Amino acid sequence: MAKAAVAAGPYAERRGRTRDLLVRYPFAREVLDFYGALLGVQEQAHEEARLARPGARDLVAYVAEMVVPAVVDVSMAAGPLKLREALASRLETTDPRDLVAAWVQGKEQVMVDRYLARAALGPVLEALGSEAAASCIGVRDRRHCPSCGGPPQLSYFAIPDEDLAAGGRFLLCARCDSAWGYARMTCPGCGEDSSSLLPIFSEEGTSSGERGSVVRGLQGRLEGYSDAERKAVFPHIRIEACDKCRHYLLNVDLAADPAAVPVVDELSALPLDLCARERGFSKITPNLMGF
Ligand SMILES: [Zn+2]
Ligand SMILES: [Zn+2]
């Protein structure tokens, strides 16, 4: 029975979705293959932390000693060349505890530091819950995670029947994976709520319920999609941008694809990130893979 409980856990769900999206999105193969390998390490770290239950004061040392080495190993074995090179040179000069501590403290970090800290800390925070999350530094307001003060990675619309908030919008924390409710048509970066300043970009062929600008010709830019394939590549994902702070994030609509696992689907949507960047927007928080 314990096995069944584990199989239905968040990591099994992420692994399953990663496998599905590998078939659906061949252009995202490099990212998804690597993420799939990393998930194995994260799942083990999650299980071990659940049993070891390090206290909040030992969190940074625990993650640096018990999780960082395995994340480094899998990254050196399965990561992209650029990441492998950056990791090798960074680890010669840096104590992993400093990297993890900087992420816990919400400090600015170069991409490789942030990747390593985030990949290693995430599963431990998920396993330990509120007390560990409460020890993280960050603003607790509507635009940040109420548990750990982390920034939002993405936004999603829940399946209406599943939630009393009836199709409510949620933001997902980049640091501890908690979700919290957030008003629709309000920028998660700056709180702007004037709809004229909040452009939405969704693909041609999607039935976005709210007003939206169209991302045209996405298929033509992706290998493996012919002109004959008129259906949207990401029917359930759209870009939600803000002309005031010039930030954006991706929104995953679970009603449009109930099998979606937002954290995995967001990683696969690189072409939408490129579209947003071409329009001069930057993501509120780059995802685990740096996009
Ligand atoms: Zn959080
Ligand atoms: Zn904004």
What is this structure, in a nutshell?
43% of the residues lie in helices and 12% in strands. By secondary structure, it is of the alpha/beta class.
Report on this model:
The protein is an alpha/beta fold. The chain folds into two domains: 133 residues, no CATH class; 132 residues, FdhE-like fold, CATH 3.90.1670.10. The protein has eleven helices and eight strands. Strands 1, 2, 3, 4, 5, 6, 7 and 8 form an eight-stranded mixed β-sheet that branches. Strand 6 and strand 7 form a beta hairpin. Helix 2 packs antiparallel against helix 3, helix 3 packs antiparallel against helix 5 and helix 7 packs across helix 8. It is globular and about 45 Å long. The N terminus is likely disordered.
Give the key terms:
single chain; 291 residues; alpha/beta; FdhE-like fold; 2 domains; 8-stranded mixed β-sheet; 11 helices; globular; binds zinc ion
Topology (elements, then pairings):
Blueprint: H1 2-7, H2 10-24, H3 29-52, H4 59-66, H5 68-78, H6 81-93, H7 96-104, H8 111-128, H9 130-134, E1 152-157, E2 169-173, E3 179-181, E4 200-203, E5 213-215, E6 237-241, E7 247-253, H10 262-268, H11 270-278, E8 282-283
Parallel strand pairs: 1-7, 4-5, 7-8
Antiparallel strand pairs: 1-2, 2-3, 4-6, 6-7
This protein binds zinc ion (2 copies).
Residues 187, 189-190, 192, 242, 244-245, 247 line the site of one zinc ion.
- What value does the average pLDDT take? 90
Strand content: 5-15%
Domain module count:
2
What's the count of strands? Answer: 8
Order of helices and strands: HHHHHHHHHEEEEEEEHHE
Poorly predicted tracts of residues: 1-6
| Helix content bin | 40-55%
Profile the largest sheet: 8 strands, mixed
Distance between the termini: 38 Å
Bound molecules: zinc ion
Q: What is the CA-atom radius of gyration, in angstroms?
A: 19 Å
Question: What best-fitting shape do the alpha-carbon axes yield?
Answer: globular
Q: How many DSSP H or I helices?
A: 11
Which class do the helix and strand fractions yield?
alpha/beta
